[in-house]
Amino acid sequence: MIRRSRLAPALALAVLTPALVSCSGDDGPSITVYNAQHEQLLEELAPQFTEETGIEVELRNGKDLELSNQLVQEGDASPADVFLTENSPAMSQVEEAGLFAPLPEDLVAPIPEQYRPASGLWTGFVARSTVLVYNTDLVDPDELPSSILDLADPEWAGRLSFSPTGADFQAIVAAVLELEGEDATREWLEGIKANGTVYDGNNVVLEAVDSGESEVGIIYHYYWYRDLAEGGDVSDDSALYFFGDEDPGAFVSVSGAGVLASSDDASDAEKFVQFLVDRTGQQALADSYALEYPLNPDVRLDPPVKPFDELQPPRVDVSDLDSRTVVDLMTEVGFL
What is the pTM of this model? Predict the structure, then answer.
């Protein structure tokens, strides 16, 4: 059953013009950032960077794969200096196209190796954990599955919800693909399609679960924690379940930052990425509304968000998460 969904291919060839938000004046050094991270987050961070460095930031906002496709089409003619994403498959697409400049080793050193590619061409800077949100009146915690793969089993028919068309869910599918292989991923997608209700957006999934319209939903952790921090309108009758034991359902999706090889302001662009990964920028991330996990171990989110070091994510190479095969599989199954 499909509700409130506008299904469209995530890798549409038509390139949309990204929204432009200028944080810059007319004088002094400036960089252009193609930003697929949350607009509000970068509108908080960019002025702090400018205050610290004197470098102005022009944000061009869009979605992960929309902007990665645009960068691939623009090639060396792109005006972008920096690319930021919510999830890493879009970074891998730009990396594969050969459009990133290597980042200095000392710049990326604050981020654990697990959350940046071995190539050194970009780095993770913030992350979100896959979770299952469940209605506490309808589901006993003892009923919850040990693996996200179990949600394809018949016992979850009519009880599951998710939002498959966005980059968030597709990153989760990419992790399943990397860990379990193509045949198992196809089988899982077919199973959750048979069992689940599709909604347009993770916030809508959260609302459906909290209201009892759905029993469980696949989302990222911060949607629930943000609502809790804002008063609990759609988190008061639900709770989060974190998968463990390096299950695909414990996947931590990494937001990436990279400097374009075509940048005319590479030094200033590197300073922006360095700000994002060093303690000052990471603390600004931790103090923001976002409630995503800073990846620099020197910075932690405050409770009640589950501590990052208590998560048990699977090890995946962030450069190997394959958005192209994910879209092909999801199209084949009928999600896109």
Answer: 0.90
